[in-house]
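INTERNAL AUDIT FORM
Audit reference: QA-55
Scope: verify that the stored structure record matches its stored sequence.
Auditor: D.O.
Record contents follow.
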Amino acid sequence: MRLTKKTHACVRLEKDGRTLVIDPGMFTEADAAVGADALFVTHEHPDHFAEDRLRAGLEANPAAELWAPRSVADQISAAFPGRVHTVGHGDAYTVAGFDVRVHGELHAVIHPDLPRVTNVGYLVDGSLFHPGDALTVPDQPVDTLLLPLQAPWSKASEVIDYLREVKPVRAYDIHDVLLAEPGLGLYGSLLGSLGGTDHSRLAPGASVDV
């Protein structure tokens, strides 16, 4: 499976000529979803769900479909009848040649005064996990963890402990657009020395086989 990092929380996965895209949000390239056979969104926040990005992908490929929590699906389903599917924890799908299992229910706590929204993570082909905005631990081993590096709801010690708990073979940063280069370097150093696994950062547009 070929993993391509897009800006912030979005990734493209390619296998056997098919493409799956997760979380094209407002910080992501405008064409991040174009060419996708399947689209998945973890939750409704605009840095993960940008309707114009999803529309571009769905309009470019009339056979493409979208899987997302109800809070997202309800906003776009009327424009693409029959092509938008609501997901929840425990669901499993085979989509465009990818096996996808859904894990998690709620977004991490940003502040007690703010309501928590639905957030799901996606385990792809039993090996790669995108948690969205939560520190969800799947109920099976993970080869590749897409690690939310920095967010208003997290601190470095939590990210390190999450990496230790999941114990992936390797981890690649996502959710990193709010950090400048010095911050990226600091987080990378901490995770490299304390995370207990192979940790790397991919620049937007870079790809790797996983």
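Auditor finding: record pair retrieved intact. The radius of gyration is 16 Å.
Action required: none
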